[in-house]
Design goal:
This protein is of the alpha/beta class. 42% of the residues lie in helices and 17% in strands. It has a seven-stranded parallel beta sheet, with helices on both faces. It has a six-stranded parallel beta sheet with strand order 10-9-8-11-12-13, sandwiched between helices. Helix 6 links the parallel strand 6 and strand 7. The longest helix is centred in the last third of the chain and has 18 residues. The radius of gyration is 21 Å and the shape is globular. About 1% of the residues have low confidence.
């Protein structure tokens, strides 16, 4: 039956680290219509850089106390705690985010009879192990609905057993107010003098910063004068720093670590680059587009649903330092064209990928899945 009054939504998440999914949720939770929705949040662990911001929203946060391994005593008791929470809160919708929380949301939601059991799919599983794929299949088959961040990701949800009519595409959105100021003028010239090439993202294998460093080394070998900045933190940082030294890029490449002022950093980048091997829909690219940055990105996952090669940026195949270097060199050598594509990208972002649009789509989705 369609709920009377506010729709109760219980979110199941891992923690509140500074990641793309976590930022997306923080933006969503802060903007949901409080007159139409009641929210509760269940987390595996009450930790992470965004925790204070989440708590400040005033929605109740429940710690399931799940350890690092799901197949453990803490994992079993965490699932039981989630079932008890569902029975107490009586949500109309339970919505899981990311691998473990998706499984818990699907299991607990089905066990307790939640009307709408939803899991969120945010990537294309390029690096999943067979065991993880099996768990994903179970989650997708138990869920009554799946939200996918792109059409490319939606196809992978169908391949994992979700009925196509039960998959809803809701693209990511960015807070456009952070990028309301006109974009800075590009400093590029044909020789690359004073050029800053930048990227934003966790330093993890799927982002393939190693290929980016190889491409930058090729540019340096061609006499292009530039500086590069990598914004983000992650397990690959020590290896990437060593690789940069081995490639002779020491002094050219800076590792800035995790930053919460990306909107201040992006205008200083003449060319933004995304070298990922896997993406659902890249928030970092959306932000670069909103900032009017000429962007070079690998054509993976939903990237081409965001940016059009030749119109709003440069698209290249993943894993190719040569092609990535060629696109970067073209963006540097043709500053007027780079500026034109950056401006077109900004217009595209403001027209289609605002955060409020993303929130309204979620609200419409919750209303639809709770209809009789």
């Amino acid at each position: 039956m369609k709920p009377s009054g506010r729709i109760r939504v219980l979110y199941v998440v891992g923690n509140f680290v500074a990641g793309g999914a976590e930022r997306h949720l923080l933006e969503l939770w802060s903007r949901l219509d409080r007159g139409g929705f009641d929210v509760a949040i269940a987390c595996f662990r009450r930790e992470g850089q965004f925790l204070d911001e989440v708590l400040a929203l005033g929605w109740p946060v429940h710690d399931l106390a799940v350890g690092r391994r799901l197949a453990s005593v803490s994992g079993l008791f965490g699932l039981l705690r989630l079932c008890r929470l569902i029975l107490d809160f009586r949500p109309h919708v339970v919505h899981g985010y990311l691998f473990g929380p998706n499984l818990y949301a699907a299991l607990a939601g089905r066990l307790t009879g939640v009307p709408a059991v939803v899991i969120a799919k945010r990537n294309v599983d390029a690096f999943e192990t067979p065991r993880q794929v099996a768990v994903q299949r179970l989650s997708h088959r138990l869920a009554t609905h799946v939200t996918a961040v792109s059409h490319a990701v939606a196809e992978t949800a169908v391949a994992l057993g979700a009925a196509r009519e039960r998959v809803t595409v809701i693209p990511n959105g960015v807070d456009l107010s952070r990028f309301a100021a006109p974009p800075a003028r590009s400093r590029t010239d044909a020789n690359g003098n004073g050029v800053v090439v930048g990227t934003v993202g966790c330093l993890a294998p799927r982002k393939d910063h190693a290929t980016l460093l190889e491409a930058l080394a090729l540019l340096a070998g061609r006499g292009c004068h530039f500086r590069a900045v990598l914004v983000g933190e992650g397990p690959e940082r020590p290896g990437l720093e060593a690789r940069a030294r081995d490639l002779g890029l020491e002094g050219r490449v800076g590792f800035l670590g995790e930053r919460n002022d990306v909107e201040r950093l992006l205008p200083g980048m003449d060319v933004f680059v995304l070298s990922s091997r896997e993406e659902g829909i890249p928030n970092a690219l959306l932000e670069a587009m909103a900032a009017g940055r000429p962007s070079v990105a690998t054509d993976v996952g939903g990237t081409s649903e965001v940016m059009t090669g030749g119109e709003t940026g440069w698209l290249v195949p993943p894993g190719s330092p040569e092609l990535l270097a060629g696109a970067l060199e073209d963006a540097i050598a043709r500053p007027d064209e780079a500026r034109r594509r950056g401006e077109a990208a900004r217009q595209r972002a403001f027209e289609s990928f605002g955060i409020d649009r993303m929130v309204r789509r979620h609200e419409e989705f919750y209303r639809r899945v709770t209809e009789p």
